[in-house]
Specification:
The structure is a homodimer of 319-residue chains.
Chain A lengths: L15 E5 L4 H12 L3 E6 L6 H5 L7 E5 L15 E4 L6 H6 L1 H21 L3 E7 L26 H21 L2 E7 L2 E2 L10 H10 L4 E4 L5 E3 L1 E2 H11 L7 E4 L4 E3 H12 L5 E4 L14 H7 L7 H9 L2
Parallel strand pairs in A: 1-2, 1-4, 2-3, 4-5, 5-6, 6-11, 7-10, 8-13
Antiparallel strand pairs in A: 9-12
Helix pairs in contact in A: 4-5, 6-8, 8-10
Chain lengths: 319, 319
Amino acid sequence: MPETPVPSTATSHPLRILITGSAGFVGSHLVERFLNEGHTVIGVDNYISGQVSNTDLFRDHPRFTFIEADVSHGIPYTGEKLDWVMHFASPASPPHYQQFPVETLMVGAQGTQNGLELAHAHSAGFFLASTSEVYGDPHVHPQPETYWGNVNPIGVRSCYDEAKRYAEAITMAYHRSRGVNTRIIRIFNTYGPRMRPDDGRVITNFVHQALRGEPLTVYGDGSQTRSFQYIDDLVEGISRLMMVKYHDPVNLGNPDEFTMLELVEVIQRVIGNNVECVYYEIPLDDPRQRKPAIEKAKEIIDWVPEVSLLQGLKEAYKL
Amino acid sequence: MPETPVPSTATSHPLRILITGSAGFVGSHLVERFLNEGHTVIGVDNYISGQVSNTDLFRDHPRFTFIEADVSHGIPYTGEKLDWVMHFASPASPPHYQQFPVETLMVGAQGTQNGLELAHAHSAGFFLASTSEVYGDPHVHPQPETYWGNVNPIGVRSCYDEAKRYAEAITMAYHRSRGVNTRIIRIFNTYGPRMRPDDGRVITNFVHQALRGEPLTVYGDGSQTRSFQYIDDLVEGISRLMMVKYHDPVNLGNPDEFTMLELVEVIQRVIGNNVECVYYEIPLDDPRQRKPAIEKAKEIIDWVPEVSLLQGLKEAYKL
């Protein structure tokens, strides 16, 4: 990552940061970054979708503490004053959240509120990991932060989508009515090392299928599009956003758009083998397109993603 | 109300029904109806927007019990087996919910979940009072239940709108994953006796202003439309829906549409005096139009509203 003129946690005095979902994919990369920058990190996870191996990476680090807890039932932190509470806990892939619909709803509601209360009690910042899923199956393309979304409130995905919309609403309510110093990011599809192999999202599925020599499972005709952000770009954006006072949601994603069939081609280039595809019916409420408008992040934190899909895949899977 | 061939709670064996928000406008009318039909009713309210006078109406009734409690923190019911848990608790008018944004969010999330858990424990039905606000500022007109809505997740109204969308999502999650026998109604603007004079919605404002001889406050140019349902029509629809197995949301509202200026004329006819108007800037995220499509209610419970605005206003205000 080139040196940057904008402030980030890299140039900050040492902070004490509590991260919910620290054993998850994104959470574990935040832990790594903040520890490397000299900050103190308290990780919290209940391993409903996080991985113990992601905690083990940092268990012996002198500035890392881990609390095993379900943040929907409270965050049992009794230590020194926190600078940040970062709420990244939630099942995030459709197979996971559909397996745990009530838990997913709770970590969006009670979990977010417990984080906000903790931040309020410590006069700390509160950082919400929201999602491009708040845009649902969008009618506006690409999606700017001002777009209100198209989400089915009673669909099979609503346990995640509505939980995150609720999380944004309660974050704004604590900001407006209780003065909490909040941030909200809407994370678009992100990939990188330490994703669960059974994550169930397309990059993981494709790469693991290709590596095993199996045909790639394409839903529908493969013309639906997605954009894919490498984890390092996301973490850089998060780090910068912590250093500016901006409370409305900010999209963080890579606007390079690929149809599923184009993704198949890139995977083929990375893996170096011919791959075959097998086609299945498209799941309920699956969005047709999803692509971030990132002008806001560019404007307020001078951020653009720097890692191409080809580079990122090679890096993620050491190919 | 004419006799009806469709089943309703009027023809049911005696039921034991717990109603959250029993001291609210709609809740109190449900209590009255169910007691009159021979059922046993447990009312629950914390009076954040309900009125003690609505509890006093039934306090001496032998089949009525009242529990003062905030259902967001639990429903302390320890009595005999319930047949229904009906979740009608929530601030519902913009001035109330904007005064209590966090409480409004909580009664939609924790409150709904506590009701679902209670219903599950008693193998009782769960009946959710949702709202036309889940449609937000709709792009589809009139709004059928299949419309996904246009809600600003971070707007000043989102503490109510997103709480209700979340409530629908968690209700469907308990139905799908835990087998709870659920109902969801989306209530459109409703008026009638026992609305709070400081309710803040247009009918209450206009009638009270007109009765005091004050000018009526119109927001914007008065061309935005609303439809107004008389409380008795709503209660009839609720009663019928309890008797059919249907789990997706059902709109209950009156499709007769009035611009604010047309409403002024009706008020003038009812009051019998000339009224003047004073114009203010339109509030943030105020919906332009809202009108229910009620084909679904007609199809499954043979329900249409029967009370005209003129009749209803005369009845509500004894004019």
